[in-house]
# Entry
Amino acid sequence: MAKSEQVICDCEVIHQDIVNQVSDRMPEEGELYDLADFFKVFADSTRVKIMWALDESEMCVCDLAVLLNMTKSAISHQLRTLRQSKLVKYRKEGKVVYYSLKDDHIKEIFEKGMEHIRE
Amino acid sequence: MAKSEQVICDCEVIHQDIVNQVSDRMPEEGELYDLADFFKVFADSTRVKIMWALDESEMCVCDLAVLLNMTKSAISHQLRTLRQSKLVKYRKEGKVVYYSLKDDHIKEIFEKGMEHIRE
DNA sequence: TTTATAGTTGAACAATCATTCAACTGTTTG
DNA sequence: CAAACAGTTGAATGATTGTTCAACTATAAA
# Structure
């Protein structure tokens, strides 16, 4: 048996039919992994605040630092994460870098989350 | 100045009007913190797989362990997280515990996430 | 009552990650 | 050119967290 096929699970199969049926309908491993990675970006309150703020208005790094009462460095690190996830875009104007949201789905995702936690 | 009011930010305010305006419209600190906590649950591929599976069908712990090729213990730990976040419910039938989704928004949240990563 | 199995739980370990700090780049202004 | 400031970056640190392991509970069957 190949290493990748080793069975790690420590129990007998109880409902083989259900397992097979669900297995067939599941998206592929990599896609679900990417989905979890996507939600990792939403799983930090600083990034949530930044995205919420940018949904209200385009802002520069200093503005965000003042708004959230954090250092420019901390903000910049998180903006890097948001850039890599293609959730924000930016434009430079002299020394100042203005960030804004790149994706329309963000607010919708926030709304769905809010619906759950407000129940 | 009280400790909680200390200014940590290391820069001058560039656009005070924008900062004020956005600050007024931002939800309160705690609510955004809860929102990030909610997305933390979606930020792990094992939990994403479990939720996706339970959206297809009610399943017991053993079925999930076989489906995802993991130990019952690992699955059980993650189900605990999902229970605490009120995302799954369960019913006991003898020795077997059947889990199912509790929230209707889950699939919608997955869809929005998929829309982003498929672009 | 003994055995077997489904499931849970707490501690330990390894990996991940947010923030801090210091050093750096690049642009503007005097 | 030199000083000042917006922003970025890499390393270090502390905190969080997913999985493993072993021990445990509870139910069912022999």
Q: What stands out?
A: Chain A touches chain B through 62 residues (CB under 8 Å). The longest strand of chain A covers residues 88-93. Residues 29-42 of chain A form the longest helix (14 residues). The mean pLDDT of chain A is 92.
